[in-house]
Amino acid sequence: MTKPKVLISDKMDPNAARIFEERGCDVDVITGKTPEELKAIIGEYDGLAIRSSTKVTAEILDAATNLKVIGRAGIGVDNVDIPAASSKGVVVMNTPFGNSITTAEHAIALMMALARQIPEANARTKAGEWPKSAFMGVEVTGKTLGLIGAGNIGAIVASRALGLKMKVAAYDPFLTPERAIEIGVEKVDLDTLLARADFITLHTPLTDETRNILSRERLQQAKEGVRIINCARGGLIDEAALKDMLESGHVAGAALDVFKEEPAKENPLFDAPNFICTPHLGASTTEAQVNVALQVAEQMSDYLVNGGVTNALNMPSLSAEEAPKLKPYMALAENLGSLIGQLAHGDLDKISIETEGHAAELNQKPIVGAVLAGLMKRYSQSVNMVNAPFMAKERGMEVREIRNEREGTFQTLIRVTVATSQGNRSVAGTLFGNSDPRLVEIFGIGIEADLSGKMLYIVNQDAPGFIGRVGALMGEYDINIGTFHLGRRGNGDEAIILLSVDQEIPQEVIDKACALDGVKVVRALSF
Ligand SMILES: NC(=O)C1=CN([C@@H]2O[C@H](COP(=O)(O)OP(=O)(O)OC[C@H]3O[C@@H](n4cnc5c(N)ncnc54)[C@H](O)[C@@H]3O)[C@@H](O)[C@H]2O)C=CC1
Ligand SMILES: O=C(O)CCC(=O)C(=O)O
Known about the structure:
By secondary structure, this protein is an alpha/beta fold. The protein has 17 helices and 22 strands. Among the domains are: 5-97 and 287-306, Rossmann fold (3-Layer(aba) Sandwich), CATH 3.40.50.720; 100-277, Rossmann fold. Helix 5 (100-116) packs across helix 7, helix 13 (322-343) runs parallel beside helix 14 (364-376) and helix 14 (364-376) packs across helix 15. The longest helix is centred in the middle third of the chain and has 22 residues, at 322-343. The two termini are 20 Å apart. It binds 1,4-dihydronicotinamide adenine dinucleotide and 2-oxoglutaric acid. 2-oxoglutaric acid binds at residues 51-52, 74-76, 99, 280, 282-284. 1,4-dihydronicotinamide adenine dinucleotide binds next to helix 5 and helix 7.
């Protein structure tokens, strides 16, 4: 088996490359490429490991014909076009905790630096001025810190601020009252936060809802003399308005680690009074960079080598422990989806995926994803478990999951049923020896078959001599039969033949098979 190939395109701790190699991937570290240069090479890679510099646009994804996974060594994924990645079937993962303590500490460091104007005092002291009377700071004890966003980083900031004897008010529409109590903050609305906070710190992702959350209007609403810290994303604050308010003194100080345009080399804020900044250093500690590098390489190689999915933003998780157990089920599920997709007529707008016995005890999401991936092949060849659920949703397909932990005839079973214009049609399969996928039923007829490669499916009226005639027809066209499977409703009733063949089946053979006495349906299938 060829090794998956990974590109590390941003500066990353060397532990990442080491882990990729140890876990069976080939890895190239090529940083600082322009988008055009990245486009020219990305087609070679199965995995792309990034930090914040690489912008993974729809255009890059179009050129990434082999790409299976993008791993962000960090939290924010606003540099990845996730909808475009999903529609191409590329998993996007991040490392949601590896740099959160570090980033929270940076926010606290910036808050302290603002309160005591440390950067400017440092520069002027070193310049020989000894400007003791120029700097009058403020205490943070007893002051109110307004948190905008109380997720992982916000909660750590809150805990540190409480240790500094500050009061913490948080605005976060998704913060539950219980969690607010747990992390020791008062949940408030944004108006209240703006009216009360002496310091405001932002810890939300950049989304359509949070963009410009500190707009000119909101900054105006903030308490006179407020100090603002942003270690989340540029774009959350209206930078021009912030400059004006630093100049008017309405905002007493601002400390930004992140900018709307990065790298920020000529930002107008640089000239504003009481403004300090760092070049997106929130996550830059040795500890955090080792954490995120190790984690991203482990997650990505786990996916590329074993199929395990952790911290994906566009796909359900699948642990490394679950992945080997689920692998044969996913193969079975995909084949059942593909079989029904190849056999059923008309628009399929309702599908139910039923698991029974052992299969019902497993994580259902990957099984459902695999069935949909198989089924959706009737519409598109570039479909996989990542994009299939999105495609099903886009087509307005109703997907039902049914679990039945009691065993039936089989210890484990997956049944896929679609609603067609001719009524419900279902196929079912099991695993032999916990590993070998087998079809056990088509449209109510019991059969036992391995679905693989090129196959021919025939529905006929059960009659003596029919099997011989099919064999003779294959022989006439030099088509070698690999396996031959039979099933029927009853003696003389509707019967099914499913045979695997080593050669492509020409249309002429299908036409001749259709013309055989008693034949109802003939279909060439492929798996
Ligand atoms: N400066 C740096 O180097 C770093 C920056 N970051 C940034 O920090 C952000 C936050 O990271 P985490 O705390 O780990 O993320 P998280 O997902 O744990 O927390 C984000 C919080 O924002 C809240 N939120 C979402 N929409 C909101 C809205 N409209 N108003 C108020 N709150 C809203 C969410 O409910 C959630 O609680 C990341 O998205 C990333 O962009 C993260 C790491 C390093
Ligand atoms: O990788 C970095 O230095 C930036 C980290 C960051 O912004 C994030 O994790 O969201």
